[in-house]
Amino acid sequence: MLAQQHRYRGRNVVERCFNKLKQWRGIAMRSDKTARSYEAGICLAGRTSSRCILDGVADDARDADDLPPRVSAPELLAVGETMAMVAPMDGSRLVEAREFRLDAGGAESNVAAHVAALGHRSAWYSRLGDDALGDRILRQLEALGVDVSRVERDAEHPTGLYVKDPGHGVRYYRRGSAASHLTPEHAAQVDLDGVRILHLSGITAAISDTASAFLDALIDRAREAGVPVSFDVNHRAALWPLGVAALRLRELAARADIVFVGRDEAETLWGTATAAGARAALPEPAELVVKDGDVGATLFDAEGEHFVPALEVEVVEAVGAGDAFAGGFLAARLAGGGPEECLTAGHERAALVLQTTSDTIEETA
Predict the structure, then answer these.
(1) What global pTM score does this model have?
(2) Half-sphere exposure (CA, 13 Å, Cβ side) for 365?
């Protein structure tokens, strides 16, 4: 059950409820008045109440009307490394640019941000350094509507960094990062209660052996909990040898329910030149989405093959568009959309990101 009732007494009540207050703040939009009312409820709990319900409701003794509504679990939980991302503001080459943006950038948290922007509850889990870049990432993702309450901080290892050089790839500065120290033990701590889709990517498998083992352990937990797994292959050639990547990414994709892969990516990894060839190489997933750049995307599922052409846009920077596509697709799936509707939603979200140097979109009213 999502909401579980536990009994605590004395100071334990206050400590537990303060922890839940921090989690609630990472999930829901709130007014200062409501937050103060909730904090007052915690103080009351410490004095007069012997009960604390760990889903955002404290103090059953009095002032119940002042407390926030029960916090719901995220519909989508994305897991994987997020780094600080530096990119030229105007799309010019890195060596020539004068103004830069500093954003949160990570394949999985990007997906969570797009899903949140499209009206669904999303959360992100990983590890960040206990540093200013980590602080900034948490603030930015929270501002985008992503629940970051599950994130762990690491005082011994830094937050990773990458720099975009528009039209010429990216430069990574992530070796030894906090996220690269993920282990199977961390997978046991990830809260899957109420989650409808767990989203992962192949990048996690590439950043370290322990992080790769973490993925296996987390997929095992999702299987036991009956949570569908979404997996974006996201091959990063700079992170590991091609032969190793091809075998490991094939293995992980085969364990997922929904898989996203680029047609060119599948060709590089498994020698398949067409969408149909990619499906032949990956018959296990219930749904396989093969993206083919400005051509379109094909979904293979139990009903057969579905193709929707891409939208025509003027491309500023392509990095991040795949995450936007996955976010749009999964948001539509959460809303009950059919194959063509999900593919169209993916294209629409990707088109927005293709026209900026950012990985996410600043929504306007």
Answers:
(1) 0.78
(2) 0
